[in-house]
Amino acid sequence: MQPQVLLIEDEVGLREILEINFRSAGYRVLSAGDGVTAWHKFDREHPDLLVLDLNLPQMSGFRLLELVRRESDVPVLILTAYDFAEAEEIAQHRPDAFVKKPFEVKDLIGLADRLVGRKPGP
Question: Per the structure, how many domains does the chain have?
Fold first, then answer.
């Protein structure tokens, strides 16, 4: 069965690029542009992986990660434009990986594959 990823990114263009690339890589894709919508989708769908931007409207990625960790140990891959000076605050909520923007989409998907236990493609 294909793993399901919840992409949480408020930049529409980047979210669409990620959706296309994750689908092409064999993922079932859910997406959200804000923290509140993401929380509802997470709670309803129980995805196999979260790809989470930290700077979100309505509910920050920090707060969303805190809520997710109260409910689940689902792998969480953080996308951030923040410098890693903020890493200590992020680390308190146990993300599984960090990727600093800008990034290569193929590297992001490779990391996602490892987090959900998939072998890399050809």
Answer: 1
